[in-house]
Protein 1
Amino acid sequence: MDLQADDFYSALSHPMRLRALVLLQQEGELCVCELTHALALAQPVISRHLAQLKAAGLLLSRRQGLWVYYRVSDALPEWATQVIQTTIVGISNTSPFQDDRQSLQTMSDRPNQTCC
């Protein structure tokens, strides 16, 4: 993957995209509905941010029935993966990142348990 640093940082410059990426890296893979619940945003807003992260090459998606699942791309260059991991270590116990993860844990109808 030929990810340019300016594209990487531009994609993460919006707080919601950073929050979504951090949550996806921590959880592995999430459905759009899970991100909507955790980040307390409307589905079109979440989908727009996810599309921007995907266009930058940071995310991969897959469709399962009606649901679309996202995960951090495993083709990211090592430097980008290190930046994401270092960021998570530094911010995971702070608000809003900790709050996002707690909110996700309170979602009662998560996919693969029952559908959204």
Protein 2
Amino acid sequence: MIKLINLTKYFGSLKIIEKVNYEFRDGESVAIIGPSGCGKSTLLKLLIRLEEPTSGTVVINNLDVPKLSEEGLIGLRKNVGMIFQSSALFDSLNVYENVAFALREHTDLKEREITKIVKEKLRLVDLEGTDRLMPEELSGGMQKRVSIARALAFEPKIILYDEPTTGLDPITSVNIEDLMIKLNRELKVTAIVVTHVLQTVYRVANRIVMLHEGKFIEAGTPEQTQRTSDPVIRKFITGGL
């Protein structure tokens, strides 16, 4: 379970998030919507302390994230997979090495054990046989799948997706969405999806919230969101029509 308690983030005088209280339940898929630049990606970074809160806190599985030691933070990040908008693959490493990287850095596993895990995760995202390809040889959709495989290396119970389908063609977007649905269903992970792509929101989320002027607005299920009378949410999902 993930709790935001009076979570606040400012960059100088610029308000990003202000006194947000919210709870993400185990096993659900929550989409956080809002226009570009409203702070959605910053929120994900606060969850795993890639950014420090100005005040308030994040609690994940009863751990007060801002108070964790470096060792505790490494342990937390093993249980929380992060898929970055740009995929964030290491350009100089091939697919195998990208997926294996954290396993080599943070475990004492033997290489044959790492190989087994890498092949299993690549199979899970339908990328068998791509081990030796370099990132530059992959399509945008394949790069995204590699980043998902890398995030799954430690079998996390929470996955954070930052704009998972932005910039992808419609067919590739559907394939990535299908993969997200599959992982949520088969692995029983908690997913938090940050996006402004409404198709992705409606397909992958059980629950939707909107980040607006630093606050959360509860939108409900995809069906409830599409029928909402809230003027802020309605303006966003209809493009102001």
Protein 3
Amino acid sequence: MPSLLLVEDDRHLREALSTALTTRGYEVSAFPAALPALFALDAGLLVDLALLDLGLPDRSGVDVVRALRRQRPDAVALVFTVQDDAPTVIEALRAGARGYLLKSTRLDRLVEALDEARLGGVPMSAQVARYLVAQLPAEEDGRRVDALTARERDVLRLLARGHAYAEVATALGIALGTVQMHVRNLYAKLEVSSKAEAAAVATRLGWS
């Protein structure tokens, strides 16, 4: 059973998420603010994933992301927030967040995003992906894409259209593990480290 750290100051949302995630098979440790979550991590709380609000009453959720990366480097952190400005997005991702979702995201989509992140995906709200496209450099896209195999290009096109790994596998008639292998290879060839960056390359090339 995967263990999950949930930090959200809105009690109703925290309880709704805890219930939904527990039903999905997660062991949830929920906190209403950053400091008790940080204390729990310091005390040895073991987690596989984290879903973190950024706008907390005591500290930024980014501080929890950083602490998680230091103390549990294999854990996957997603942030969800009402803050959709580019500097906040970049700060959270640089701190080590695997994905960035807005609070306008449906509850069922938040749960799906955690499952996607566990499989190596990088779930992003559409608005956040557009900010990242604007931030990323465009040089040498063509040269890097030329190095991709035909199958890697197929995978990249589908990722750029917002498909999760499982959906890519179904669309191409291949195993999920094969998709993950292609993603690792195309990341290396494109010199990117996230689904959002890879999708940005495809978008600049008009593939999305």
